[in-house]
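Dear support,

Our group has been running a series of protein-ligand predictions, and this particular one with zinc ion is the one our PI (initials K.S.) wants archived with full inputs and outputs. We had some confusion internally about which version of the output was final, so please treat the block below as the authoritative record. The input we submitted was:
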Amino acid sequence: MAGMEQPVEDSELTVLCITGWCRNGSTILGNVLNEAPGFFHVGEIHFLWKNSAGLGVNNLCGCGATLPECPVWSEILPVGRPAGATPAEHAANVIRRQRAVARTRHTWRIMKNGLDAGGSSDLREHAELMTGIYRAVAERTGSRVLVDTTKIPGEAAVLPRLPGIRTVFVHLVRDPMAVSNSWRTPKDYVYTMSASKNTAYWRAFNIASRAILRRYPQQSMLLRYEDFIADPAGTVDALLRLCGADPAGNPVHGQTVSLHTNHTVTGNPDRFRHGETVIRPKDDSWRTGLPRLARLATLVVAWPMAWRYGYRSTGGLRRPAQPVRPPRQVPPPRQVAPQPLSVAAPHGTAPAEPALEDGTVGSGS
Ligand SMILES: [Zn+2]
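Confirmed final output from the archive:
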């Protein structure tokens, strides 16, 4: 029914929607889930049209082919394209609609007003397109659960309005210090962003993602990236159950998972790797890699939200200790007259040396 959230049956298609801010580990989580029976990781499907038209930062599928030449996406891209429209014209129209009605700032009005939000037909047309796309991918790949790591909350808010599709939300949050450190480092097609700007996005995207979880608590999970990497097998068990899948299909053993070729639309460049993959249980390289000023900027912008998620370590924000100067030559004591024993200096009154702090210096690496 127009504008209403859609009832779904257990047997229908599920979309596991991961929200949150970029560099939160969604690509590796999606690729791990991609190994579970009946699951298919589409990547960041929001960028399918932009990247297939060559307008994004990369146009490759996770399989290594360009999106228009990939055996999966070449069959999906024509879905919803109006008769007579070229692929470029269709891509331009989809991108225009996405910008007009499905941005992060639109999250609340979509949750409140449904497909009537925005006062035009754009959102309804976008929802129709996404319904057709998800269904076509499920049919083409024989999947029951599609994992979408788009992360844009405005897109996520549309999903419960799609007919015949059950949506499960995972709000994936990562320590803003680690996220700022990740944004400092250029990697293949991934650009960089300052700590203050990236953390402002971290804040906005997490606020909107939290609003979605509060709106749909029965079908949602808040997940910290750090908890996922500390116990990937247990986390995937919980996610499979959330999607109504059998945990016996969990592909993770301890910290190890065997990754095969995927068909992801954009994401972290690590998506091109496959084979035996060990998930490191800790994510603390920011402690030595993130400079003090960037840590301070991250702390200020992320407060108090980061605290609420349990991220309370700053890694030390005091200035790094100065090199210790060699002790000055102490002149020989003057010869003084012997003092009475009753005024001898007490023990333990010498001024203490300032304590040196370890691990506070950004290496700039
Ligand atoms: Zn592909």
